[in-house]
Specification:
The protein has helices at residues 12-16, 20-23, 50-62, 80-83, 96-101, 111-135, 154-169, 182-186, 208-221, 285-291, 340-353, 402-416, 441-463, 468-473, and strands at residues 39-46, 68-71, 87-89, 147-151, 178-181, 196-200, 203-205, 225-227, 234-236, 239-242, 245-254, 270-280, 298-301, 307-311, 317-321, 365-376, 382-386, 391-395. It is built from 14 helices and 18 strands. It is α/β, with parallel strands linked by helices.
């Protein structure tokens, strides 16, 4: 979730304009000093997002003698880590069935026990983020209110019920995920057309830029060098090439998420797909009395095209979703961060969910932004270390990265230090996703899938039944 490639050369004041989170992080965003010539360290981390910084944090904590450098093309928190929806959840992009089928080192599948261990580790990661932030005195404005996933049509209610049945089949009880009727759902949030919902306590709303910036300061206090304005142009065993010098290291950790495709040799490992977000002005208490979210629950619904929202500590609604196109050649450009059509659809959806926002003059949107998230071909995040080359990696979070990055950082700590632990035995460790198709095939396929997902929601509004189109394309969309 870091950006260590292709710097945009943004002046300092532009960083505050990236998102609501950047504007309200309490930072002046002056870049740290860049690399000043060749450097020798024990561990080089490429990307100062949450993956890279959690890795540096746990390594420095475990072995203060390690020489660690984090290389960042822009500033810490520039990428997805600083501009996401602010969900710290136990969601993992791959299903329990997928995780159970992943092979161990001996070729046998991890099975049910492995999938359950992965889920338990994700649940624990939500608590660990909160613990570590408090321990490092990071004010991430964290509130652990859980997630309410609304069913606002008969088809969505079918999916909500099926989700709970699936959870029970995997031994997940009421304390993990439960089905709510309309009255139960409205105890959390009152959205138009609600028929029911699922609820999990395993999510915290937070301010992502405050978290990532605070973490950067925390690792510096432990002796880690955070080198900003230092783009990495090549990663090979034992070295990172940059325009400012070569960094030599026994272990090199690639923590570049959506920017991975811009690294030579990794062009088809992960595709950057944009998610866009809006934020309202702070809402008055009488409006919140109608909406709910008193415990700052994160919220979504069971539609096919993902949406997500939260109530911020200063009383705003932050609401985002997919819908922006994938750009040919895995392009990432500042101009892609804002798409007026998608932002307008997000506002329309928010008003449709909460009609109080459309009354009178309506609610004012103060910030609109976006950013690239990383999607592997099989939609399964992974973490690992090749002991022969010293090259390590983590990523492919498909937008569920705030807690998963923390699990990745702790896992990479154990891998780098040669520890065999419960974390290094999890199914996602060492997994290698297949590569994406060459262009223009992946451009055609990804954007066709996006259109199909949008059409599936339209189909369900017309028919009132679960979409046949969604069922047909589900295997292609993870």
């Amino acid at each position: 979730m870091g950006c260590a490639l292709n710097p945009a050369g943004s002046p300092t004041e532009d960083y505050r304009a990236l998102s609501l989170w950047h504007a309200t992080a309490g930072e002046d965003w002056t870049p740290r000093a860049p690399l000043a010539g060749d450097l020798d360290v024990d561990v080089a981390v490429v990307g100062a997002g949450l993956t890279g910084l959690w890795t540096a944090h746990y390594l420095a904590e475990a072995d203060p003698a390690l020489r660690i450098a984090v290389l960042e093309a822009e500033v810490a928190g520039y990428g997805a880590s600083g501009r996401n929806g602010g969900w710290c959840s136990a969601l993992f992009p791959a299903s329990s069935e997928t995780l159970a089928a992943l092979p161990r080192a001996d070729g046998r599948p991890h099975g049910r026990a492995g999938a359950l261990a992965q889920h338990a580790a994700m649940r624990g990661s939500v608590a660990e983020v909160a613990r570590a932030a408090a321990a490092e005195d990071i004010d991430a404005q964290l509130a652990r209110g859980g997630t309410i996933d609304l069913a606002r049509s008969p088809a969505q209610l079918v999916r909500a019920r099926a989700e709970v049945v699936h959870a029970r089949a995997w031994g997940r009880g009421e304390d993990d995920l439960r089905l709510l009727d309309r009255a139960g759902a409205e105890e959390h949030v009152r959205a138009a057309g609600t028929l029911g919902a699922t609820y999990t306590p395993d999510c915290a709303a937070l301010h992502p830029a405050r978290l990532v910036r605070g973490l950067a300061r925390a690792v510096e206090r432990r002796g880690v060098r955070v080198l900003e304005q230092t783009p990495v142009t090549a990663v090979t065993p034992g070295r990172c090439g940059t325009p400012r010098g070569v960094v030599r290291a026994e272990v090199v950790v690639r923590a570049t998420e959506g920017w991975t495709a811009h690294l030579p040799g990794h062009e088809r490992d992960v595709v950057p797909v944009y998610s866009l977000v809006i934020a309202t002005e702070p809402l008055p208490e009488e409006v919140w009395a109608e909406i709910g979210l008193a415990r700052r629950e994160t919220f979504t619904d069971h539609r096919h095209l993902i949406v997500y929202g939260q109530r911020t500590a200063d009383g705003r609604l932050v609401f985002g979703g997919r819908g922006a196109p994938y750009h040919l050649g895995s392009a990432i450009r500042p101009g892609h961060d804002r798409d007026p059509r998608v932002h307008a659809r997000l506002l329309a959806t928010l008003r449709e969910m909460f009609p109080v926002l459309a009354r009178g003059r309506g609610v004012r949107v103060t910030h609109a932004w976006g950013g690239a998230l990383g999607i592997p071909r099989d939609w399964c995040a992974s973490v690992g270390l090749d002991r022969d080359t010293g090259l390590a990696w983590a990523g492919g979070y498909v937008g569920d990265g705030v807690a998963t990055t923390n699990l990745a950082g702790r896992t990479l700590r154990d891998l780098v230090l040669g520890r065999d632990t419960d974390l290094t035995a999890l199914p996602w460790v060492g997994h290698r996703s297949p590569r994406w198709e060459p262009e223009p095939l992946r451009w055609l396929g990804i954007n066709a899938g996006l259109r199909a997902t949008t059409a599936a929601d339209v189909e369900e509004r017309w028919t009132g039944r679960p979409s046949l189109l969604a069922r047909a394309v589900a295997p292609l969309l993870g």
